[in-house]
Amino acid sequence: QDNSFEQFIINYCNEKLQQIFIELTLKEEQEEYIREGIEWTHIEYFNNAIICDLIENNQTGILAMLDEECLRPGTVTDETFLEKLNQVCATHQHFESRMSKCSRFLNDTSLPHSCFRIQHYAGKVMYQVEGFVDKNNDLLYRDLSQAMWKASHSLIKALFPEGNPAKINLKRPPTAGSQFKASVATLMKNLQNKNPNYIRCIKPNEKKAADIFNEALVCHQVRYLGLLENVRVRRAGYAFRQAYEPCLERYKMLCKQTWPHWRGPARAGVEVLFNELRIPEEEFSFGRSKIFIRNPRTLFKLEDLRKQRLEDLATLIEKIYRGWKCRTRFLLMKRCQIVIASWYRRYA
């Protein structure tokens, strides 16, 4: 119920993860249809970039203002930090405070004077400003780092690289918020360079017990995980897409014209293949470099046909091999019989 600096930076990381989830699924999927020239009606979804900007903007972000309060001379308290937030973020649509100059929330008794509230992607969260400044400073004295670096234990020494005399920096140590922000930026960079697969876990109840399904809890998770937007995009779009070359290579045995080799462009081969299989035109679309299949059952049908065709080909190969083996054995026995008969006649 009482959220402080720790929960704030955790929720900030969750916002960044949600942002990259949006970019890599909803945004990227719709942009791919446009790139491939597929007819598409854009589906609106909420992009939480505005919330991330509220927290991490280098000029007016909450973390930037917190660092500024920690570094400026004079009397610095959590109250002065909140006053600064009220001055800069008062008109932001995702920021709420009782001390806000716009006075929108003066009658909101659920929001104490020493708190501010952020409307996150997953819902509204109220933060107590008490301790924000001290926790953000998180100063580790330089002589303590140097002492730990001199330890004989390799792990302890590795945990305090800033204690190395060769790397002594007289500048003020970075704040906890700036360090966390840099770590999140590194994480986002690593994720963007990969091809991540998302697994969304739904908690059915708070008791972690079997056979209990809390509908309100599940609906809340479905909303804040962004599953509704994702399902809308997926249902309106295409369930499967693949480049023409691997698609033709995988299913070419289903058509006599493309099997065993297709002499021509891969797209033309896929068109001949789908026409031969009589797949309805509304079930697929040809992009500039990929084939798009709308319904999963069409893909399952292709896989079933391929499986049956592979069994037929295996049976054909087995039949030809057995025929070759029997014929070879017959010819060998025939030659042996001729040799035996000729020697027998000579002897007789």
Automatic annotation (TrEMBL):
Pfam family of the protein (one): Myosin_head
Chain residue ranges for the region called Actin-binding: 184-206
GO-annotated cellular components: brush border; cytoplasm; microvillus; myosin complex; plasma membrane
Boundaries of every Myosin motor domain copy: 1-307
Keywords assigned by UniProt, alphabetized: Actin-binding, ATP-binding, Calmodulin-binding, Motor protein, Myosin, Nucleotide-binding, Repeat
Example GO molecular function: microfilament motor activity
PROSITE patterns named among the record's database cross-references: MYOSIN_MOTOR
GO biological process: actin filament organization; actin filament-based movement; endocytosis
InterPro entries listed in its UniProt record: Kinesin_motor_dom_sf (IPR036961), Myosin_head_motor_dom-like (IPR001609), P-loop_NTPase (IPR027417)
Record flagged with keyword Repeat: yes
Assigned protein family: Belongs to the TRAFAC class myosin-kinesin ATPase superfamily. Myosin family.
Protein name: MYO1B protein
Source organism of the structure: Struthidea cinerea
